[in-house]
Write a structure and sequence with these properties.
About 35% of the residues lie in helices and about 15% in strands.
């Protein structure tokens, strides 16, 4: 039988825990620990630095989501800007998951992002700053009456390829400190927006090859955002995203992205995630999220569906990224490599372990929808735990 760490060990069959109890026992501090930085070593506390090495390295986006204010729901970007009815929130697909390789601007926005990462315990060893005059990306985000978001272009009407994240050069992170991070991580989390720019795409692929060859597992979060890509580049985008996804141990995508990328109807992708997994036969897990419709998964031979949680939606930016953070945190807390999950977790425990893991991930994503902003809205472990116990938010 799989031996959990003492603090995480499930009860015996005679006192079997509920799914929520198992999840609470297995997972401890979702958004923070599932970032690459569990903490940086300190010479003062006498703890060996290797004990605190980053576990997850994220290669992705650090930007500001300029989200329509509550009184601007249902209006266009032009109207939103005209009314000055928007608020900038730190975000970016992989910054929402967290430790981090990316290029941010040498501007005030870049300062805010770097300080935020440091304050929240994210290892910024591989964070780089762009040359003067190259801005940190700001994405204009409209909101429907229901709170669903849509990306409507970039601040100031600037073209997508003018922002700092497009200029990541792998040579800038090829020093000894960066090599130590890459060689020591268990997971590399990567989005697909960086593929839209040639320079950052080359750097992303190079880093993936370095990390995987050093023993890291790749978790790919498919992000199809046409506004990031040049006009007429949809087929190229599909080919490049699909090629990268086929290298991943975990592929996470929405039901709508499954339809766009794989030509599988969104409803079928959610109801039968095995058909999605067939497109990625080397993946250990395929995760399909669908917002208020729930989420499904196919993981090491186990298929399931997670019912959606009932929440009051304020704004949905970052929910999928929080889902990814909760999922990876769970695996790290279990101390199990996904490649060896079937060997290390007893056959009789696998289904419940996976279901609990996905419920925790879904709860983490759901709670992110109850506040504004992708990073600001991420819940603490205690909040996720409380939500799973009570079935609702019982805090302000």
């Amino acid at each position: 039988a799989f031996q959990f760490p003492v603090a995480l060990a499930p009860a015996t069959a005679s006192r079997a825990p509920s799914r929520e109890a198992w999840a609470r026992r297995c997972l401890t501090r979702a958004w923070k620990t599932s970032s690459a930085a569990a903490a940086k070593d300190s010479d003062d506390d006498g703890v060996e630095s290797s004990k605190f090495r980053p576990k997850v390295l994220c290669v992705g986006d650090a930007l500001f989501d300029c989200i329509a204010n509550d009184d601007a729901r249902g209006v266009s970007v032009a109207k939103m800007v005209e009314r000055n009815a928007w608020t900038p929130f730190p975000g970016g697909a992989n910054a929402n998951v967290a430790c981090f390789l990316r290029l941010v601007g040498s501007d005030e926005d870049g300062d805010v992002l770097e300080n935020l990462f440091r304050e929240t315990g994210v290892d910024v060893t591989m964070l780089r700053r762009a040359d003067e005059g190259i801005p940190t990306r700001r994405v204009m985000v409209t909101r429907s009456i229901e709170g669903d978001r849509e990306f409507g272009g970039f601040y100031g009407g600037l073209p997508s390829n003018t922002f700092s994240d497009c200029f990541l050069d792998i040579s800038t992170v090829a020093d000894d400190a960066s090599d130590a991070v890459v060689e020591g991580v268990e997971w590399l989390v990567c989005g697909t927006l960086g593929l839209a720019c040639e320079k950052s795409a080359e750097a992303t692929r190079c880093l993936i090859n370095r990390a995987v060859s050093s023993g890291a597992s790749l978790c790919l979060d498919v992000n199809w955002r046409p506004v990031f890509w040049p006009e007429g580049a949809e087929e190229r985008a599909r080919d490049e995203i699909l090629a990268l996804a086929r290298q991943a141990q975990v592929v996470k995508l929405t039901d709508e992205e499954a339809e766009w990328l794989l030509d599988i109807p969104a409803e079928d992708a959610l109801k039968n995630p095995f058909v999605v997994h067939e497109k990625f036969p080397d993946a250990s897990a395929v995760l399909v999220t669908a917002g208020e419709k729930g989420a499904s998964y196919y993981m090491v031979g186990h298929e399931g569906f997670v019912e959606p949680f009932v929440i009051d939606v304020v704004e949905t930016t970052g929910a999928g990224d929080a889902f990814t953070a909760g999922f990876l945190h769970g695996l790290l807390s279990m101390g199990v490599r996904i490649e060896s999950f079937e060997k290390e977790v007893g056959a009789e425990e696998q289904a419940e372990a996976i279901e609990s893991l996905l419920r925790f991930a879904s709860a983490t994503g759901a709670l992110t929808c109850t506040k504004e902003g992708a990073i600001a809205a991420q819940p603490s472990y205690d909040q996720v735990e409380s939500f799973l116990i009570h079935g609702k938010k019982v805090w302000v």
